[in-house]
Amino acid sequence: MSDGPAATARPSRAEVCVVAIAECFRGDGELLANPIGTIPMIGGRLARATFEPELVMTDGEAAFVSNDEAFAFPDGKVVEAYNPYRAMFDMVWSGRRHVIMSGSQIDPFGNQNFAAIGSDWRAPRVQLLGFRGAPGNTIQNATSYWIPNHSRQVFVERVDVVTGVGWDAAAALSNGAARYFALRGVVTNLCVMDFGGAGNRLRLVSVHPGVSLEDVEAATGFELALADPVVETRLPDANDLYLIRQVIDPGALRELEVPGPPS
Amino acid sequence: MKDKRCSEGDVLGEIESGMTIGIGGWGSRRKPMSLVRSLARSGLRDLTLVSYGGPDVGLLCASGNVRKVVSAFVSLDSIALEPHYREARQSGRVEEEPWDEGLLLLGLQAAAWRLPFLPSRVGLGSDLLRLNPRLSTVRSPFEDGEELVAAPALELDVALCHLNVADAGGNAAFLGPDLYFDDLFLRAARRRFVSVERVVPTAVLLAAAGTEQRVRINRTMVDGVVERPGAAHFTSCVPEYERDEAFQQRYAAAARTPEDWAAFRAAFVDVSEEEYQARREKSA
Fold it and tell me: ipTM of the assembly?
């Protein structure tokens, strides 16, 4: 593998996010990595191509594929197995999956909303995606979140509708109903967070290069717990950059999701 | 074998205001749009739609046929939010009964198996139980005593699906990547109708399907077959055609103002299906 000039240019913010997403899958082994969104798709592919080779990934339709490229398959798909929607729910409910979802609102315990904004369900101020698969994902398989626009509109004290289950709601369930609940963390365009705060509250773990603690706090609508110390997010190494730029996402779609200067 | 071929008009004759209609496909993929268009022209009111929703739901909401939508999402796939459905929701004109995607599968499966409900953990801890009054909980009778969500049977008056190919008796095959939940919609309904790209003699259905594993709809699941090439337009019907993205954008843009919608409706809804197919080809 050669380090061309493209692999030596400084990493962009999007590329830092790709690595942070990849890190979400560390230790997952032979599990369906099901990252939804542009940078998540690239990050999952990067994890498999580097430190987590047993991960299973989809073509975005109805198959598991071995391809390293994330979006287009110019040389065809290498299909491992058939996985139509019905089988996807088998994957979810059997727990052989780690999903990365988006969220329009996230609260301090990781309750997620992407259904609607506003307090009146009969006529929401803004109709969004709906519940999609969020209730089932969060109660039956591992879940992380990707937020490309970290802001006070997203990180709110209280979500209008709970679509994805948070730590406090899971703790309130009785008789082992939350035995498979596994809400891991949140990656944003600014930082990486887990739920290591008191009572499983969101905790800042690392900030991306060029982002300060104050930047994150200013963009968050509640008080964040802080890891001790808060570190800088791991940077992509030369091999990561080669894979991201030349193999997984040669069309640079990542830069459309998180535009910005090099870090 | 009975010949079940019929027209969109024949199917419409079986549908009344207030009925619960299940629609197959997923998002903006393999939707029975010729049947949906005929419903949109019908003046029928107060329908309850059960759907992995796409433009089927949006078009009928915009046309004033819908009282309630039972769904986990309504999306045009390449346009994440269905603008006509959004408008109907935000103005409070249409009620939404929220489900999780997988829970909806269980509701259809329960109806198909003639059970009152199927249990699941899906929904616990979320606002589904607060916002969907039909969902309930049930306690496991076994040692674990776990409290679970009971997904009630989603019994349908009518199911409408679009498949790639069928025989005249209603044996039908999907040729694209995914059957979605069309078989469950058909099994969950009292009256069942499929539109198809083409009807072939039973003797060549297997050859048309490529393998018997694609002939997933059998004739006990179907009361009527509408042969209509292009019926799923502008949604995708792989391998016959991909989604017509340009047309879909035009449809979505028609949600901007009542005037835009009136113009779209006059051109592409208030016309016969034959005229629709001719016009959309001309507009391409």
Answer: 0.96
